[in-house]
């Protein structure tokens, strides 16, 4: 169980802060059932409630600073996705995003980045699907890393780049 003040990753809402735990005042909802009420960190003027015993949407604690730094240090070792059927590419992208697994999201970002590079090198346009999903994946990953590392989300990309360059130079 999470506590008030905890940062959690909650499905496609990304990083949220638990603001209260208890029954919610909503018609047709039992006062016996406990809910987390959360504020998404990167969605303005929004709140989310979910039952404490919810198992349908992934909800987990935000990684620690050490876990975040370890993930960044291992990014070059994380494999790209192997999409076997082009028609199922978007389904695989969605599945990874719904898993909220940061390592899989890194693989997704690497896969899409490589596809974008290949297409632009061939003089082709970036697909709207790749553009959409790389944006969602980066927002998700960078949002969690920002909370774990205690920095602004806009600074995470530069931090990753400098940390990886530092690792390669060492």
Task: Please characterize this protein's 3D structure.
The chain is an alpha+beta fold. It is built from five helices and five strands, in the order βββββααααα. The protein has a five-stranded antiparallel β-sheet. Helix 2 packs parallel to helix 4. The longest helix is centred in the last third of the chain and has 22 residues. The chain is globular, with a radius of gyration of 18 Å. It starts with 6 loop residues before the first strand and ends with a helix. The model has no long low-confidence stretch (mean pLDDT 93).
Key features of this structure:
alpha+beta, 45% helix, 170 residues, 15% strand, 5 strands, five-stranded antiparallel β-sheet
C-alpha termini separation: 41 Å
Helix content: 40-55%
Please tally the β strands and state the result: 5
How confident is the prediction overall: mean pLDDT?
Answer: 93
Q: H/E series, N to C?
A: EEEEEHHHHH
Order of strands in the sheet with the most strands? 4-3-2-1-5
Structural class: alpha+beta
Q: Give Rg in angstroms.
A: 18 Å
Percentage of residues in strands: 5-15%
Q: What profile does the largest beta sheet have?
A: 5 strands, antiparallel
Indicate the low-confidence ranges by residue numbers. Answer: none
Oligomer: single chain
Please tally the helical runs, counting DSSP H or I stretches of 4 or more residues: 5
Shape: globular
């Amino acid at each position: 169980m999470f506590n008030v003040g905890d940062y959690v990753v909650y499905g496609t809402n990304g990083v949220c802060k638990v603001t209260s735990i208890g029954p919610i005042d909503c018609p047709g909802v039992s006062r016996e059932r406990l809910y987390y009420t959360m504020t998404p960190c990167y969605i303005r003027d929004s709140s989310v409630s979910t039952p404490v015993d919810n198992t349908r949407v992934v909800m987990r604690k935000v990684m620690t600073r050490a876990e975040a730094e370890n993930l960044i240090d291992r990014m070059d070792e994380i494999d790209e996705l192997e999409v076997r059927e082009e028609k199922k590419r978007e389904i695989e992208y969605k599945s990874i995003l719904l898993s909220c697994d940061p390592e899989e999201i890194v693989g997704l970002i690497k896969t899409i980045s490589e596809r974008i590079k290949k297409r632009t090198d061939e003089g082709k346009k970036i697909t709207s699907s790749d553009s959409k999903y790389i944006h969602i994946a980066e927002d998700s990953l960078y949002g969690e890393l920002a909370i774990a590392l205690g920095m602004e989300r806009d600074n995470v990309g530069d931090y990753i780049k400098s940390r990886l360059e530092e690792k390669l130079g060492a």
